[in-house]
Design a protein that fits this description.
Elements (H helix, E strand, L loop, with lengths): L3 E6 L3 E6 L6 H15 L4 E6 L3 E6 L5 H14 L9 E8 L7 H8 L3 H8 L3 E7 L6 E4 L14 E4 L3 E5 L2 E4 L4 E3 L2 E6 L19 E6 L6
Parallel strand pairs: 5-13
Antiparallel strand pairs: 1-2, 2-4, 3-4, 5-12, 6-7, 6-13, 7-10, 8-11, 9-10, 9-12
């Protein structure tokens, strides 16, 4: 059994959270299923999934007793299925002018730039949650050889499409932003469009495979 807690946070906000911040894969996939059900409702301004929780913002704050009970009931109904998740293949131009941190990372990690590219593109990543920027998908889990802290001094400007790593995660910046992750390359695939019915291309539970482009290092 997975321990959980559903509670009101302010007048409009309900949080459903698992008691562990590093849930087992089955519990996390069950949370993805719950999120999908909540996204189908028009009762919320926004549904915000995280690694071990999902937060909803009610249009009518008077509905919170109903929705606390309803979310708990939906959780009980959610089952981990064997459905194949959506897989996205993203082409990346690694190194050169596209990945300004690649050479420094190779020196820090004491491996070659080509090995970094091979390691980074060898994994089928899972979208664990969306946050920081609209459409910014946190992808796990990096090979241990590439796991390192964020940059000591963040950049004031990270270009749209930058492919980056930090700690045990990797991501693609869907828009230009300040940022403290290490930049490996550039992806030209648009990942966020506010005019689409589903603005974010990547959703929790999806999988991502990076493919090196001939335009980059390898």
């Amino acid at each position: 059994m997975t321990d959980k807690h559903c509670y009101l946070l302010g007048e409009h906000t309900i949080v459903f959270t698992l008691t562990t911040q590093n849930p087992a894969r089955n519990a996390q996939r069950r949370l993805f299923a719950l999120t999908a059900k909540l996204l189908q409702s028009d009762a919320f301004f926004e549904v915000v999934p995280a690694k071990a929780s999902v937060t909803v913002y009610l249009k009518n704050p008077q509905d919170h007793p109903f929705w606390i009970a309803k979310i708990n009931a939906l959780w009980d109904e959610c089952e981990v299925t064997s459905d194949t998740p959506t897989t996205h293949t993203l082409t990346v131009k690694y190194g050169r002018n596209f990945g300004p941190d690649l050479t420094a990372l190779a020196n820090t990690l004491q491996i070659t730039e080509k090995q970094i590219v091979e390691l980074h593109s060898s994994i089928l990543y899972q979208v664990e949650f969306i946050g920081f920027l609209p459409g910014f998908a946190y992808l796990g889990t990096l090979p241990k050889a590439l796991q390192l802290p964020r940059k000591e001094t963040p950049r004031t400007h990270v270009p749209k499409g930058s492919v980056a790593i930090a700690q045990e995660l990797t991501a693609v910046y869907p828009s230009a932003s300040p940022g403290g992750w290490h930049l490996l390359g550039q992806c030209d695939t648009p990942l966020f469009d506010p005019l689409r019915a589903q603005p974010s291309v990547l959703m929790p539970g999806d999988q991502v495979k990076f493919m090196p482009s001939k335009e980059g290092l390898c």
